[in-house]
Amino acid sequence: MQKSVEEDRNLYIGGSDIPIIMGISPFKTYYQLLKEKVGIEEPEHVENEYVEYGNVMEEKIRDYVSQVHDTCFKEDKLINEDIRCHVDGFNGSEIIEIKTTSKIHKKVRTYKYYIVQLLFYMINYNVEYGYLEVYKRPKDFNEEFDSDLLTEYCINIEDYQDWVEEIKQAIEKFRKDKKRLEENVLLGEDDFND
C-alpha cells in the first residue's frame, strides 16, 4: 500500500496526518505539515527498516486477523473532498489499523497516537467498531508471523467521543490555517501557535 499512500498525500488530509494536526506526533510539527500541504516544502519520504518491516508484516497480520474473525479484511481507500483514508483492512462494517512497534503499553489509551488514526477512519467510513492490531516488533526484525506478538484492541467509537471531538476540531483548525498560509506564504510558525 505504501506507494499509493505517498502519491498525492499533499492534496488530502489522511490518517497519518491526524496525530500531527493534533500536536501529538513526535515525528513532524504542525507547521511542517502545513508547509507540505500548501506546497512550500516537499514532503519528507521516510523509508527505513521500521517502515519496511511494517509493510512486510501488514499482509500477514491482516490475513491472520481475518481468519480469527472469520471475515475478510482488505485494504481500502476512501476519498471525500479533502479527506483521504487508506485503511489497512475493511470488511464492510469494521476497520483494522495495523501497527508494528517496540513500544508496548498496558493501557489502550496510551496508544492515542495510533487510535486517533483509527478513529479518523471510523468517522469517515461511518462505522461503530474498529480494531487496533499492535504487533511487537522483534529485535532481529524476524518476518515470520508470531500470533503471540499480536495484541488486539476492540475500539468502540462511542467510548472515544472525547477524542472524536478533538479530531474534528483539529481538522477544522488545520483547514483554516492551511487557507491562511496559502493566502500569505510568509507567515511563520509563531503565526499558527494558539
Describe this structure in words.
This protein is of the alpha/beta class and 194 residues long. The protein has one domain: Lambda Exonuclease, Chain A. It has 6 helices and 6 strands; from the N terminus they run H-E-H-H-H-E-E-E-H-E-E-H. Strands 1, 2, 3, 4, 5 and 6 form a 6-stranded mixed beta sheet that branches. A hairpin with a 3-residue loop joins strand 3 and strand 4. The longest helix has 23 residues. The N and C termini lie far apart (36 Å).
SSE map:
Layout: H1 2-6, E1 13-14, H2 18-21, H3 30-38, H4 49-69, E2 74-80, E3 83-90, E4 94-101, H5 112-125, E5 129-136, E6 150-156, H6 161-183
Parallel strand pairs: 1-3, 4-5
Antiparallel strand pairs: 2-3, 3-4, 5-6
Helix pairs in contact: 3-6
Brief account:
With 194 residues, this protein is an alpha/beta fold. It is 39% helix and 21% strand.
| Shape designation | globular
Low-confidence stretches: 1-5
Sketch the major β-sheet. 6 strands, mixed
| Contiguous helical run count | 6
CA-based gyration radius: 17 Å
Whole-Å distance between the termini?
36 Å
Fraction in beta strands? 15-25%
Q: Share of helix among residues?
A: 25-40%
Task: State the main characteristics.
globular; 194 residues; Lambda Exonuclease, Chain A; alpha/beta
